[in-house]
Design a protein that fits this description.
single chain; 199 residues; Nucleoside Triphosphate Pyrophosphohydrolase; eight-stranded mixed beta sheet; three-stranded antiparallel beta sheet; hydrolase activity; NUDIX_hydrolase_dom; NUDIX_hydrolase-like_dom_sf; hydrolase
């Protein structure tokens, strides 16, 4: 890509990998080490978290309030307000379907469909994790949920909040979850620009 083009866009052009191996196998994800042929005569190695990828969903009730969850996150040592989200670890599962499944499992709300909002890499220098974010409207309480929450998910709290309040909390620095921040600010920006954000 010509970096002087008018369109500002990332250029996905992976460099050749001479060798790739797993140097650590974890409970949820692994650490890989790649030897990268960066340029003629230039080879270097990089360790990174090899991740399955994930989905998150900015979901709204029939009344138009955003559905958020509070969950304990040990690495941050905090109870954080987040979007319903989860790993793409079921082989062959459509990401939109995964987002709707996570919505139901974590909040008890269900939606008929979800629309893609954006993709992002939370830490592209240290992980290949890509998070795909969706939006769902007119969500209602599911009649039954065939899922048992365990570990930190057992303490999940669900809350609905007006979009303006969610945006204010995001901009004030009171919230810190990346998917929640990015989705909220991207969505509210599109609403203000008059873009079609309905399903």
């Amino acid at each position: 890509m010509n970096i002087h083009e008018d369109t500002l866009a990332d250029d996905f052009c992976p460099r050749p990998v001479a060798e790739s191996r797993t140097v650590y196998e974890g409970l949820v994800w692994n650490v890989a080490r790649d030897s990268v042929d960066f340029a003629p005569g230039v080879r270097f190695s990089r360790d990174y978290v090899s991740h399955t990828g994930a989905v998150a969903i900015l979901a709204f009730t029939v009344e138009g309030e955003a559905i958020v969850i509070r969950q304990y996150r040990h690495p941050a040592g905090a109870h954080m307000w987040e979007l319903p989200a989860g790993l793409l670890d079921k082989e062959g599962e459509d990401p939109a379907a995964a987002a709707l499944r996570e919505l139901e499992e974590e909040t008890g709300y269900t939606a008929q469909s979800a629309r893609h909002l954006l993709d992002y890499y939370p830490s592209a220098g240290g992980s290949n994790e890509k998070i795909r974010v969706y939006v769902a409207h007119e969500c209602t309480k599911a009649s039954t949920i065939d899922f048992t929450r365990v570990d930190e998910e057992a303490e999940i709290l669900t809350r609905t909040v007006p979009l303006d309040d969610l945006e204010s909390a995001a901009l004030s620095g009171r919230l810190h979850n990346s998917a929640l921040l990015i989705a909220t600010l991207a969505y509210t920006s599109r609403v203000r620009k008059g873009e079609d954000v309905a399903i």
